[in-house]
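Researcher: Let's do a round of design. I'm pasting the structure tokens now; please hold your answer until I've finished.
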């Protein structure tokens, strides 16, 4: 595999006019998407993240702007291509992204906030990080960098989960895309947001400083273009926890199936990874896998993985079967032993178009 792909921390990249995108193979996209998966069993703040699962795909060549300077973005096609490419999407996010393009420098590191998107109770953030005077000797330690910030909405801190990835570019910059869960916050309108980075990585010995960004983002356009299909499919796990699939959603950032969990303890409700697998109207394999579970609240959602075919605007229907795999008790690694736990069901997307 070319050294543009790193199996470490989450990824994406940025934007300016003259930048050329580098093609990404289907296999690299699948590996990237698979590496982005993260299961969050309980509500936690970014400070408690032991590490973010990750892989990096180089999707552009970036120039390093002057510290504190603003970036002038292309007004035409492709402004929001970097989040799209990183997440393996087949749609441009230009109509939904808020382009920021400002930089902050502290402790010899510059963080540039490229763009953000509000999506279904979360904030998706693209950043680029530069180390002053970086040389090839810095390449290996920079591969472990994944800046994650603290989000404030309307002046109040939001303690949700975070997942995403980062990767080092040819110019030794680190580009990343992180999704912050804004628990309990309606993201279908305009929000006043402050994003504060106090470390350039999740490790205790990572350089500390303060990189602060204040902006307004609006999620109304993406919310209006999000397809919502109510579901009412239930099944029971081997530990007695009842699972109900409540709704399917789909938009330019991807597709989700939300679920609720009842019965047992908070730990019981986090003991299984859920999967929906089946086919679409073209006979292509479709797979949804658990992205987040809140055991205490008994809620969560699965996302459509590029382990199978993508769900596109042309997809007419999905036929899916619920499966589950017990979380490992010791090793921390899933064995992939998914077993059917419910009856197949149909999601009609044609009537929503």
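Researcher: That's everything. Go ahead.
Model: Designed sequence:
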């Amino acid at each position: 595999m070319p050294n543009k792909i790193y199996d470490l921390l989450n990824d994406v990249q940025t934007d300016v006019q003259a930048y050329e995108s580098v093609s990404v193979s289907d296999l690299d996209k699948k590996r990237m998407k698979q590496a982005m998966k993260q299961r969050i069993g309980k509500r936690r703040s970014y400070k408690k993240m032991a590490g973010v699962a990750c892989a990096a795909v180089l999707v552009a060549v970036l120039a390093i702007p002057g510290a504190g300077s603003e970036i002038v973005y292309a007004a035409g096609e492709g402004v929001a291509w970097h989040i799209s490419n990183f997440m393996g999407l087949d749609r441009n996010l230009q109509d939904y992204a808020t382009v920021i393009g400002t930089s902050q420098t502290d402790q010899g590191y510059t963080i540039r906030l490229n763009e953000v998107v509000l999506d279904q109770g979360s904030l998706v953030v693209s950043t680029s990080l530069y180390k002053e005077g970086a040389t090839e000797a810095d390449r290996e330690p920079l591969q472990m960098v994944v800046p994650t910030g603290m989000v404030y909405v309307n002046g109040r801190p939001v303690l949700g989960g975070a997942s995403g990835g980062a990767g080092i570019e040819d110019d030794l910059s680190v580009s990343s895309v992180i999704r912050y869960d804004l628990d309990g916050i309606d993201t279908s309108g305009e929000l006043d947001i402050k994003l504060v980075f106090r470390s350039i990585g999740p490790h205790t010995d990572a350089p500390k400083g303060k990189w602060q960004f204040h902006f307004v983002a609006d999620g109304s356009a993406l919310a209006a273009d999000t397809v919502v299909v109510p579901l009412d499919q239930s099944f029971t796990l081997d530990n007695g926890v009842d699972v109900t699939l409540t709704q399917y959603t789909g938009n330019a950032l991807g597709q989700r199936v939300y679920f609720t969990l009842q019965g047992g303890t908070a730990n019981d409700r986090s003991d299984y990874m859920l999967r929906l697998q089946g086919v679409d109207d073209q006979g292509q394999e479709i797979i949804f896998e658990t992205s987040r579970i809140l055991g205490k609240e008994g809620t969560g959602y699965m996302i459509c993985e590029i382990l199978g075919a993508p769900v596109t605007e042309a997809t007419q229907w999905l036929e899916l079967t619920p499966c589950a795999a017990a979380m490992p008790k010791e090793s921390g690694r899933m064995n992939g032993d998914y077993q059917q736990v419910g009856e197949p069901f149909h999601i009609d997307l044609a009537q929503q178009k």
